[in-house]
Amino acid sequence: MNQGARATTVAVGIAFGFLVTGSGFGNYTTIHQALLLRSWYLFAVFGSAVAVAAAGLALLRGAGVTRYGGPLRLPHAPARRRHVFGAVIFGAGFGLTGTCPGGAVAVVATGGLGGLLVLAGLAAGMWLRGAAGRPALDQHLEAAADQREQPPLTCTYGSGAVGSGTERT
């Protein structure tokens, strides 16, 4: 990674932390009210984040390259059963703790020790996932599902490549 990319990464990280903290993602009450559907504030924040990301991706697609000259690659893969299980576990953790990984860092950065518990739980979960590995049965089932599925479309923007030869119209 070159010097400019490092500086940009640090600047984006600081800005992201400021916005996460300022938007209330580091506040248990704010998140709890949103999860109970008593406040729509965080949903508006989510919506604005999606809008900004969509605009940024549209600009990058138009340019065809990233800021530092690399091609823009947006790989697509079909959702698998493990993704659904992971989303359920993530959602349960979000609901129980009232924070997500980014919010947990914001909680710690603002002096809340509860965020340390969430971060410790995240680290333990990642360690357990790595230690457990994937059972052979799951690998076999996914391989069988891969053979039945139509290959996903792939595009590499800016390089002239258009799909994987299985374009659907």
What is this entry, summarized?
By secondary structure, the protein is mainly α. It contains 7 helices and 2 strands.
Describe the structure.
With 169 residues, the chain is mainly α. It has one domain (3-157). It has seven helices and two strands. It has helices spanning 3-23, 28-35, 41-63, 81-97, 101-109, 114-132, 136-148, and strands at 72-73, 156-157. Helix 1 packs across helix 5 and helix 5 packs antiparallel against helix 6. The longest helix has 23 residues, at 41-63. It is globular. Residues 150-169 have low confidence and may be disordered.
Radius of gyration: 20 Å
Count of runs of 4 or more consecutive helical residues: 7
Number of domains: 1
Summarize the main sheet. 2 strands, antiparallel
Distance between the termini: 39 Å
Quickly give the structural class: mainly alpha
Oligomer: single chain
**Bulk shape:** globular
- Mean pLDDT rating: 75
Give the topology, please.
Elements: H1 3-23, H2 28-35, H3 41-63, E1 72-73, H4 81-97, H5 101-109, H6 114-132, H7 136-148, E2 156-157
Antiparallel strand pairs: 1-2
